[in-house]
Each structure stands twice: as structure tokens, then as C-alpha cells.
Amino acid sequence: MKRAFTLLGLLACLSSGAAFAATPPASQPPAAPSTTPSATASGAQQFTLKNGMQLIVQPDRRAPTAVHMVWVRVGSMDEVDGTTGVAHVLEHMMFKGTKTLPPGEFSRRVAALGGRENAFTSRDYTGYYQQIPSNRLEDVMKLESDRFANNHWPDDEFKKELEVVKEERRLRTEDQPRAMLAEQLFAATFTASPYRRPIVGWMSDLDAMTPNDARAFYRQWYTPTNAAVVVAGDVDVAQVRSLAEKYYGSLPAHALPERKPRTEPAQQGLRRIAVKAPAEQAYVALAFRAPSLNRVENLTETDRDALALMVLSAVFNGYDGARLDRALTQGENRVADSASSGAMVTGRGPSLFMLSGVPAAGKTAQQVEDALRAEVARVARDGVSEAELTRVKTQWIASTVYERDSVMNQAQELGGNWIQGFPLDANERLLELLRTVTPAQVQAVAAKYFGDDQLTVATLLPQPLDSPRPRAQPAPGASRH
Which first-to-last residue range defines the signal peptide (predicted)? Predict the structure, then answer.
């Protein structure tokens, strides 16, 4: 299923396909707010239902439509070795029936309501959504609450859907050289953190996965105290709260498993990997260890550094003709066909600052790597201008305004902030904080976080396009379906 990204994630220029956000306490998710609702200037309100489930409502009366989402604070980082990919597999299985609905009936009913629906899995969370005419909100709340509490399917459905997931892995990872490189890069960058594992899972784990693996994961993590309902659109807050209590507030809750810390040890030196795959062009990606943005109020020095890295990434790659574009891809001596950056500084796990590029004809991946690092060194040496920062900040403000024209984006924003343990108005606060970042702060982080001991480099070595692609083989004893 496709994934969604919050505005916070977009501002951070996330390039991995996963959401990275604030780190809650290791043992349990952030404490639920009191039953007294909190509200933002835009009218968003948050409530705690009687079973501990969170409800977030954002009224927007501009069109007779509504988005209904359920966010669960569980993702691939909560898996254990041997069952990688089970969070994503379970996401698929949530469409395969309940105790009262046969497989496929959920989607058929949403379509009959004039709606569209899908789901997404990341390292940090899993989410489900429907966009429907606002007068059909009760119908989808009834359907989704039943699915959340009563997911049920036969083993044969699991076996068939598991093959769909395997094919998804083949098409999106194994047959995509840069995706394969990204997977290997994360595996090499992290040692203890579960971020080292792919969201879709290792093929050997998928081959060995059983229906009970998915059922056990569902029983562990799908409980009201680990979830939030988000509704945005043409709705009345009091009515939505009443419906949520009716359909979600009575669902039984249970204790969550203990979330033990899996702290990533300090890196002790530069790491390099090479990935061979049929491809037309080489590619190089640099991953630097970076500080995380853990809060948007009462900032620590680490939080301020993370904000400055977000601004640095935008200086490099935040608009057409930004620094990486000008320095690497333009002119007679250009070394790259494309170059990009991403400050991945939010998440329940460790953070990274990414730089990447595709060599131009006649140039090498090493030349692109050197040019990328030279641009960082130039900022560390010479700094950035106030005019550059003003341009970046103006574009962020404009993009925020445009994105809020979409009720889907509003719902994603609110759900993503809840996952991180951030306040409802985190995006407004973030914009205000980004406005305060100075050229000196940007220069300081460029000098601080880009040394060899913080770096992992992955290089794609192109092979002939007619070379056979290696396919993952099933684990010994695993059955084929």
C-alpha cells in the first residue's frame, strides 16, 4: 500500500520513504493528554476517548468532503528479527476481513459510499484512511472501528496476500537499483537500531512468515491506547466526538508490550559499501549521523542543531537552482546529472543527513561524492547569506499555505504530529522556529556534523542491463505459494 507523509516530513526533505520524528520514551508512547480538549488557531481539537484512544478533529467547511484516518504507533521498527516486514504484511491483511465482513468487502463498501481508501506503513507508524462525502462519515467510522478491533481472515487469504507483498518487494526494491542501494545503505549505517531493516522486510523472513506471526503482531500493538482517529473536513466537532465515542470509545484496550531502548552506538569510522546491479548510470549516496528534533518547544541545543540542518538541506536543494544544482549540474564542467539532500532529523529512531547524486557522462561516482562534500565544506568555511535563508523560509511558508488547501494533507499533518508526540500546532511552531535560524547556526552545523566518523557511503556500480538480476531465494524449508 502506498505511504503518506506529513507536512513535517516534507519540510525535513525526507528521501527514504519513511517518516522520522520525535523520539518518545522508550518504554511507552507519549502520555495521552487529559480529557480536556486542546485546540489550535485553525480549529483543530484533540480529545481522549474513554478507553484511552485519541481523537483529533480539524473542521474545514470549504467542500462537502472529509478524510477519516486511523494512525497506529507501530511500524517496522517494532518488529523483531525473523519477522521483518510483518507490520506491512499486517497492513495488507487488515483489508482481508473481520468477524462479520468477508475479504474485500471493506473496500467494496467504501467504494459504494463514493469514497477512496488506502493505507501506509513506515518505520514508525501504520495508517489507514478513507476520503468520503462528509455525510458518510459515520459509515466509515463504523467500518474502520470494526476492522481495528475485529480483524479476522483465513490462512489461505494470508498465503495469497503474502505473495503480493513478495512481488511488491521484487518490483519496488530488487528490480530498482537505487532502492536496493538505499536498503543496503540503511543496513550498513545502523548497527543496533531497527532502522537497519527494510520496511517491506527481508525476503527470507517473508518466505518464512506464518499467519500467526501477523495475528500476534496485531494482538500486541492494535489497541486503542496505541492509536488515534483523525478526521478533517466538512464536519462538526461535537458530532464527530459523539460518533467516535460510539464506535471507538467502547473498544477494549490492553497493555502494550514494553518498548525497550535500542540505542545506536557511536560510529567509529567511515563505512563504505558498493552495490552491483543492472543500471544505466552510477549513483552515490552519503549518510551522515545527525541530531534529532525531539520537540518544538523548550528546545535543547540538539533540537536547534536539527533545525539548522533542515535549513542547510533547503539551502542545498530546496528550490530550483539551489546550491547543489548550481555547483554540480550546471556549466561546462558539471559533474552530475542530478544532486539532492535531505535532513532526516525526525523519527522514533536515529537521524541522518543525506546527500546523493548521479554522475554526468564521463564523470565518476567518486567525483560526485567529492563535489557534494566540497559544497558542505564551502558552507562550513564561508557560511550562507541572509538572502538565501530568506528565500528558503519564504518558500516554506508558501508551501504550508498551499498544502492546507487539501483536507488529506491536514489530516496527515495532524496524525504525523501525534505519532511524534508533538502538539497539534507543531507545524506552525516549526515554521516560527525555522524563521529564527541564523546564517551562523547553519555554518556551525555544516562544520560539526559532516566528518568521516559520522559517514556511510554507498555507491551503485552499474552492470549491463541485460545481466540477470539475482533473485532472493526462499529460506530452507520455506514453502512456495
Answer: 1-21
User: Per DSSP, what are the bridge partners of residue 48?
Assistant: 54
DSSP letter for 361, please.
T
Q: What is the pLDDT of residues 322-363, one digit of tens each?
A: 999 999 999 988 999 999 999 999 999 999 999 999 999 999
pLDDT tens track for 224-275: 999 999 999 999 999 999 999 999 999 999 999 999 989 999 999 999 999 9
Secondary structure (H, E, C), 206-225: HHHCCHHHHHHHHHHHCCHH
Contact by Cβ (8 Å): 352, 189: yes
What torsion, rounded to 10 degrees, do the Cα atoms 72, 73, 79, 83 define? 10
- What the chain holds in terms of domains, given with CATH numbers, is 7-247 (3.30.830.10), 271-463 (3.30.830.10)
Mean pLDDT of 34-57: 83
DSSP state of 449: S
Distance CA 90, CA 384 (A): 46
Taking the CA atoms of 80, 82, 84 and 87 in sequence, report the sign of the dihedral they define: negative
Q: Is 91 one of the annotated active-site residues of the chain?
A: yes
Helix (H) / strand (E) element for 399: namely helix 386-403
Helix/strand/coil for 339:
strand
Do residues 195 and 352 lie in contact, with contact meaning Cβ atoms separated by under 8 Å? Answer: no
Residue 411 near residue 231 (C-beta atoms within 8 A)? yes
Contact (Cβ atoms closer than 8 angstroms) between residue 205 and residue 476: no
Contact status, residue 357 vs residue 339, Cβ threshold 8 Å: yes
